[in-house]
Batch of 2 targets.
Target 1
Amino acid sequence: MAYKKERSHALVILALATSLAACSTASYPPAPTVAASPDYRYVIGPLDTVNIVVWRNPELSGTVSVRPDGRISTPLVEDVQALGRNPAELARDLEKALAKYIRDPQVTVMVTNFAGSSSEQIRIVGEAAKPQAIPYRQNMTVLDVMILVGGLTDFAAGNRAVLVRGSEKGKQYNVRLADLVRRGDISANVDVRPGDVLIIPQSWF
């Protein structure tokens, strides 16, 4: 159910992104320079890989992948929800489940391969060299995003790019990507947040 809700949320955001790309002449306020949350904690998503260590019980430890339904299976614990939990929360859930079988279990969970839930991703659509969805990390900026997607295409209207902030109910901001990427104007660099969508329209000429 959580995965279906997440997928529905993703489709709504992408539909909004498509409609905004068609209206690239609209004027939006500049994106806030600082937007990162200092207390951010990573939320586990489908297809993430987690390493589970049960102290003094190596036979119960191991590396598992989060299934598309957001759950994982480990020795003695066949089905536990991982989607939407941070690593510490998942560790506590596993401790409660394992307490039925071993005394005072102590569990550590580490995410070793990040895909991220849709609410934790940054989506880049339009005239990026490699449009894609990338996992958010703490203190990530638009410049980090542009490096990961390979910059702008030759047809991009970078200074008309729009940042759709999912955490603010789809509020839209202008981002000066051409100034940042092509002119090296670092004042155009801004923070991104989990759930942001970056739309890069095509130039008219």
Target 2
Amino acid sequence: MQKSRYLMIAGVAALGLIGSAGLVSGHGGATGIVKERMDLMVSVGKAMKTITDMIQGETEFDAETLRESANFIAAHGGEQMSRLFPEDSIEGPSEALPAIWQDWERFSALAEDLRVFAGALAQAADNPRGGNMHGNRGNSPIGMSSGDSPMTRGNPMMGSNPMMGGNRMMGGGQSPMDDPDALANMPPEAAFARVAQTCSACHTEFRKKQ
């Protein structure tokens, strides 16, 4: 039950990015850096959909395909993504909000989170699947208490604090879901959830509502 709920919520979080890829695929009129980043979002969205379909059992799980898709996302996160958002580049059909430059530190931190957690997902590709996600504390995933589920903590789509990776970025106590090394040793579902959450947080805060 926990496993199916875990995957369901992770999939819902991923829909923001996947849906965006479909929306921006018809970005006629975009030029320059705006078109470049829209094209990137389409490509990242396709990679995310490939992973989502495997994680949710819509397509056959293949560790190498997951690793390639996750590595693609990681390679285009961090500075490779944030560099595509020079200040005030919101002309034409851009879906970027001015909030990006009003809180650049937050935006660039999320871009870096995408790089780091997608990298962890690539490393986790060959790990045993989610059936081994339960730790020694009841039925909560990876041994976390029921009030600190990796899917509800910091997930804006679940109505909780959208500050994804807050402990990691603020230097506080680090939970396993904020630790890329820990995620790399968990089932791939865990790192996938963290990538999906990061995408969802970025879209919630920095992308125009459709």
